[in-house]
Write a structure and sequence with these properties.
Layout (H helix, E strand, L loop, with lengths): L3 E4 L3 H13 L3 E7 L6 H5 L2 E6 L10 H11 L3 E3 L9 H9 L3 E2 L4 H8 L1 H10 L15 H11 L3 E9 L2 E6 L2 H19 L4 E5 L5 E10 L4 E13 L2 E7 L6 H18 L2 E11 L2 E8 L6 H8 L3 H9 L16 E8 L11 E2 L2 E3 L6 E5 L6 E2 L6 E9 L2 H14 L1 E3 L5 H7 L3 H5 L6 H9 L1
Parallel strand pairs: 1-2, 1-4, 2-3, 4-5
Antiparallel strand pairs: 6-7, 6-8, 9-10, 9-12, 10-11, 11-14, 12-13, 14-19, 15-18, 16-20, 17-19
Length: about 450
Amino acid sequence: MFEKVLIANRGEIALRIHRACHEMGISTVAVHSTADADAMHVRLADESVCIGPPPSSKSYLNIPAILSSATLTGADAIHPGVGFLSENARFAEMVEEHGLAFIGPSSEHIAMMGDKVQAKVAAKELGLPVVPGSEGAVTSYEEARAIAKDAGYPVLIKASAGGGGRGMKVANSESELESAYRMARNEAKAAFGNDEVYLEKYLQKPRHIEVQILADGKGGAVHMGERDCSLQRRHQKVLEEALSPALNAEERHRIGETARQAILKMGYHSAGTLEFLYEDGEFFFIEMNTRLQVEHPISEAITGIDLVREQIRVAAGHTLPFTQEDITFSGHAVECRINAEHPKTFAPSPGLIKEYHPPGGLGVRVDSAIFGGYRVPPHYDSLIAKLIVHGQTRNECLMRLRRALEEMVIEGIDTTLPLHRDLVNDPDVINGDYDIHWLEHWMGERG
């Protein structure tokens, strides 16, 4: 097992990894920008190294500084967390070239699934169902028009190197296709430096269903059930739940086993998530995230498995200590992403937290690195806390979640707490009757 792990991230996920390491008897190294010198993960780590000024490009994305810090402190391994360098294949490769373990999958698998076009081709080869559309990149409007006619309108044009909704446009008819195609390419070029796009059928009212997987690359692979991530705003997840209220037992088994068999064929190791759109009983693969997910705690809540701990064990060469038959699902869990944003305009709200009181009680977990007197910096993602609630039934979980949201206090800055309080009292959310478009329609109706 590793003796010392460098955590190449910040905020709540850095703290989450630190906790797992310490419970395993592993020392931690925190890297940080000058803006995060007083951050909680820096305070609690065994060692810390400043790697640059506030901009991510000069600190948390500064590969030479991170690798130098690992060498300087004598770390055995690097955990990339989520975001930043977690899905950078070259970084994973360089970590191993420096004689360190990368706590994640191989650079080959990161590269394969990081390119959306290549991922779709690989998915078909692995037996995963895919959305009808182009086989690869669409290089001309004429090609896009032919594929759209075959798939049927509406269609979605997506950036091959995309994410977060950038480089993504919908065309409802042929008259809209040319402008959507050109806009998607222009956005992709501006956001990712790569104007390659692909095209697929646009589903009308799908759910966003993702399957959590874990594998050791030595024949051991499990799925930990699915998460329903359909409550989204501008393709950004707001609230997630496990298991999905939309699936029955047969569908759950079918998609879980399909995902598990795919990663076995890949020879994948570490944690990962296969994401699907689900509509009318059918699943369509959209992408794979070759890293830990922000919403991983709800999978932990229903299975009792520590995903970060298992990531670390697998990276150290251990096999999984359980099989699929050992995985059981207990109750229901929901995660609310609390952001430092105005709850209606979603304008960023960095600044001083004057008062902070997390909720507690049975089945309530808060993953956060904030505290009273902490100043939320303006330089990074606005996520400041994750409220995770577990109950024996979905109804019990929602009742407990309402109570926890009422208890939670974050004063001094705007947060999305009021949005979540309204969401969990809406009849459609209570009934589990929503799709990926529901939240934006609901917000539009509320003004």
